[in-house]
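S1.2 Input.
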Amino acid sequence: MNRSARVPAVIVGLDGLTGLQSARILRRRRVPVIGLAQDSSHFCCRTKACDRTLTSDTSGEALVETLVRLADELDGPAVLFPCTDASVLTLARHQQDLPPGYIHDLPDPNTVETLLDKWHFYRYVQREQLPLTGTAFIQERRDAERGAREIRFPAILKPAVKTPVWLSQTSAKVFKIEDGAELLRYFERCIRWSDRLILQEWVPGGDQNLYTSNCYFDSRSEMLVGFVSRKVRQWPLETGSGCLARAEPDPTVLEHSRRLFQGLHFRGLGYLEMKRHPETGQYLIIESNIGRPTGRSSLAEACGVELLYTKYCDNLGLPLPVSRSQTGQKCAWIHLRQDFQASLLLWRRGRLGIREWLRSLRGPKIYALESLSDPAPFLFDLLRVARLAVARLMGRGAES
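S1.3 Output.
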């Protein structure tokens, strides 16, 4: 089948690394790609992996309206690839409003909200007796005071859902809290951004103790693809997103992923992050993402595991790709700029030596942003960072 005759994929959220990587993966599989981006000037939108790029809200009713208009322009069906939590939630809630030509694998809205909303997710994990660190649910000050007494510190404070207000106030995913007094101070601030907060005991161990699984489940909730990687570094340190990760098969992580998602008869892309306790060896659930690709999707592909293309084929009822099982193939995924920032800070704190850093970069790698065949996103990101650096320097000069 030639490329022009294939069913297109619609990437919702091209203006982000996950959207960019998804577009590149599908392009390499000769799938026509249409990108939707809220910020069409974003460096990721400079990619040539898309046949078309449209400016649109990537969540809410405005997204649905864009998809309705786009359906009128398409000659046939299209497969949806939401790449943000907000777009996943929107599409799940508006399944009945989407034109019939759109093909997706999102489960019912209740299942989506159970897995996306951390309040419901951690309660589900507790009910199923899956491994979880000490967790407290906070809505009022008395809940925070109880958490200060019952939860061991240090701990992590995070919102049940990253509301628009939260995102407008901070870029932090979570806050690391050292004691009860600090918890109460953060509570007073954070409760104004999100009316439901989660407090969890910090699992000791470095970033290298974090494992992630990327899976795909079919309509019978059978795991068609399972891929596990281990983080090496993340940015920001301790509470950020991975900037260097390595493929590392781990049956324990994969089995917990299977049990978690199959317990809800889940279909689609599923992601689970776990942390291995350095003393007990126990794997503890950190968080999940569903219905969308993640940063490690391209690492799976680099290791010969066809994660996103399996979704595409299964959605369309096409023969599945043969390469769906993780072998011992060694490969790393790296976001060069962020990993350099993380490594530099670790070096300054005496936690990473030059030789150790060089060893961590050995072996074959797939790059989050950099691509010789698609260089514009990296170059525009570099230009953006340079402009920010100059602006900061000029601001300091003005202050002095």
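S1.4 Remarks. The chain has a mean pLDDT of 94.
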